Amino acid sequence: MTDFIRFFIPFYFIFFFAISFVGISYKVAKRISKNPNVLPKDDSAYGLVGFYFKLILSALFIYTILLLLFPEDIFSAFKINIPEPHTVRYLGLFIMIAALIWVITAQIEMKDSWRIGIDSTMKTELITQGLFRFSRNPIFFGMTMSLFGFFLVLPTVITFSFLLIGHILMQIQIRLEEEYLLKEHGPIYLLYKKRVKRMLGFY
To answer: What is the pTM of this model?
Structure first.
């Protein structure tokens, strides 16, 4: 199982990034003739959030590569002991795979509205169908669940930090996007916001 995780984790995140960010963004860019990655690179508060997003993604990538190269050291470093570790680990793997499928499905459903960041130069369609009937932010929900699954597979202080920091950054980004969507779509978004939870179910 340890050898499987050693290879699964880095290839999972590489595949996740390649498909859900690079691949989807490339397809959308061809259709709209514009780069959908619109995260700012300035010194604003929003730009700082974008910078930390990139920083945590880089740290996550480095950590998974170290896991591949030095499995014994990484598996044991800052480990959190949990009961029935094998059962929890299998659950974590299931959550990670389900989260990947969920995120890609949501991105496909967004069609040309897919953006990385807030696009204030081009009005996009408000997507309320598919997974967006259950969550206003299914992509961020899926990304959070992916990090949660990662923590269950490899319960360490470091993977918990990825989950916690990633969740905080996504919650900030969500609120920035909600402010923009309310301004852009007005009463339509307000009704949607009242009908559908921010993440899923009760939240």
So the answer is: 0.91
